[in-house]
Structures
1.
Amino acid sequence: MSYIAVENCTLLLSAPAIELTPPTILPPSVKVKADGKGVYRGAVTFTYGVGAISHPAWTASVTNIAPAIFTINGSATKVKADSQAVLLEGDESAQVLVQGQAMVGTTPTPSPQAISLKILLAGQLKVSGE
């Protein structure tokens, strides 16, 4: 059993990527709440704007040069909200190629990096599911 993810949950990009600016997130359920916060359910999209992610391989620009979009699907098999599986603490997106630039000699060169996004902490400690 894992805690159900709610608004203001803590996210973690796969190492060594670092979040500089929080993503824009599709809104959680307004009908179903856990500890007074809207529950994330179904396929939730997390969008990081340009300059929101840092990666040590990107020596030319230091940050992502294009928006990065991650989708985390609800993994609960026994708990639903709004008829959709809820997201749980530990759920993770597939890897996404995030665009940045590395220096090759003196030339900035595209350097896409495979990064995933994980729900590190659910944002509440009262309601769990599986």
2.
Amino acid sequence: MRTRIKPPSAAMIVACLALFVALGGVGYAAATINGKDIKNGTVTTKKLKNGTVTNAKVKKSSLQANRLTARARNALKGNAGPQGPQGVPGLAGLEQIETAVAPSAGASKTAIATCPEGKQVTGGGVRTLAAEGLAFVDESIPQGNSWYGEVRTVNSVAQNFGIRVWVICATVNP
């Protein structure tokens, strides 16, 4: 008795066709794709074999120093150059001047701390001399050769408090 071979089903034919296309596509890609077909930045360091990129293959001026290893950067360092010219003098005679208004009743207090003649304001500040939460600094700003401060009580209710203002002064050389 003879065994009859069944013809392949439609699903089997489609599956075989898909397999041949997939295998053929990989072979075609391997044979026809070269470096010009690959977009910049798509091949990462992990995908490169060690020793693949050599000095001859690196474009001149394409590497920045921060992309080199510490050893390579140290190899590029040369001798120190000559001493440069002296820079301009900075601040001199730095001092802090304070003004305080003793605690007394009121809803607002102001004070000004002024730099001595010939010195300029480089900074300053204000502090309330009151129990915590009783008063707050409303203004703390430079004014000409002085520092101005204003403290107010919460809800503008008269309270017993004081204020301290300081200015930081220095001779500023041009």
3.
Amino acid sequence: MNTQLTEIKNRLPKMVIMMAGQAVESGIRAYRKAEEEASKQVNLRDSGKPYNFTLRHAYYDSVGVAASVLWRIFWSCEADCQSAIEKVAESTGSYYGYPEKRFDEFVVALGERLGGNIRVRETY
């Protein structure tokens, strides 16, 4: 296990880790639904049928909601958290996993996004 990940998990309360894991999981589900909807609408567009990407944007907004929860735990910005969620969503094959595992994957992805410098807020 990554030493920085271990340090973060030792520093955060278990409940915060569980909540963050659930936020990551929700973000992954929203990202996948947005991608499915985008693919569906592209197929409609390419076949000359009426199409509408509104639902795709609505799903994708939910990824931002999950990211807004996570950046309050980590010293980063919402865009970094959103990119980390997207990276985890693209690298995992299933919708559902264990929230703690998703938390670990998210922290690793966030660390890559931030150049390895992840900081945790002292108050939540």
4.
Amino acid sequence: MKRTAFYAAAASAALLAQAALAGQSSGQIFTDNGTYTYYNLLPAQMGGVDSAGNLSYTYSPPVSNFHGAAYHPSDNTVTSFDAPNASRYTFVTSISENGKIAGYDDDSSFNQLGFVKNGNIFTDVSYPGPHGQVYLFSVNDSCDVAGLSSCFRGGVNFLLKNGVYTSIFDPLGSASSGLAYGLNNLDTGRGLV
């Protein structure tokens, strides 16, 4: 396991290279590239957006668990899915420029694992050591992921690249405070302290 410094910048929604913004307000997803566009994807929790405007998000229909989804504005379609090991929920947090989706799910033993969805193939992501919950917050085109392995409110922020885990430290030198929230194709991260 390697260690690296992580320089944090506050970010509450996905920012695009084209200076557009995606987020949610009152449970409704919107984008803003100079004009607000609201999407009728209720109820929903924002995951991410790519530069083509594809949205990844989590939704919960009435009397059901949480599911992952991707909205494709080019053909006005929604692809919904559950992680294969998910027994109660699938939360989606990110979409890369080439359509990879990251998130986390809860299995039948109540273990929370991260996942990366690449087409119809799901890859589980855990973290070495005694950590009870894995949250993946970002994925890039190479399937590198940034996330948090948490246990009882303590944890380790990490970058997983080519099978190697790197602990991510905030500017104050701690791997257990802040969140590694974003990752670009150069493996440069952003987060919250």
